[in-house]
Amino acid sequence: MAGISRARAEWLGLRIFPHEPALRQWLSRRTLGEIEIDDVVQETYAILAALDSVDHIRNPRTYMFEVAKSVVLQTLRRSRIITLEVLSEATDGLQTPSDDPDPEQVAADRQELGRLAEMVAALPTRCREVFILRKIHGLSQREVAQRLDLSQSTVEKHIAKALGLLIEQVGRGGNRRVEASIDRDPDQIAPRRRPIGKRR
User: Fold this and answer.
1) What is the pTM of this model?
2) Which of 118, 119, 162, 175 has the fewest CB atoms below 10 angstroms from its CB?
3) Is the pLDDT of residue 176 over 50?
């Protein structure tokens, strides 16, 4: 995710990536022809990362789904061959889902929360402690620094590292564990990042 600001990475981590499983599930129930769901998700992240501002976005989940829908439709327009089934699905079936979760969505969200908890648990120890205090318990950067006897700049670096590792793993569909499973000094090692629009 080279070139992305820390604020945007944090916004993506907190406001967008929790909705990725729902987006993937929504896309998987549609006939997309030759379009790969991973490609749609990666392009959606790339578009959101490149926005000049996100201040206008009141409902990140809905906005993410709309961007993904736009990616699918643009890809279909560039396709040379489109079946009637795919065309029908594109015009009728890509309605952005309601924000009201159905029972299936509630179950999927619970499962995803468990997956997210596993990813957080796999973070390096100090990153995990800082992330939980700051992002889950809502402590200020100063309060986290005081509680863990760290400088505020070190707290900020741990948060950035944790978010980078989590976003990187989510970008891979969560199929690989966080690589940094031991404590490392964030001043010495930065998380490896890759451009958001490219697949491995």
Assistant:
1) 0.45
2) 175
3) no
Comparing C-alpha atoms, which of 151, 168, 158 is closest to residue 126? 158
Give the model confidence (pLDDT) of 6-57 as tens digits: 889 899 999 998 999 999 988 887 766 678 889 999 999 999 999 999 999 9
Residue partners of 39: CB distance under 8 A and separation at least 6: 75, 199
Measured distance CA(83)–CA(51) in Å, rounded: 33
Rounded to the nearest 5°, which phi and psi values hold at 146?
A: -65, -45
DSSP state of 190: P
Q: Are 161 and 154 in contact (CB under 8 A)?
A: no
Tokens 């560039």 map to which residue?
A: 78
Helix extents (H) in the chain: 6-11, 20-28, 37-50, 60-78, 84-88, 103-121, 125-131, 141-148, 152-171
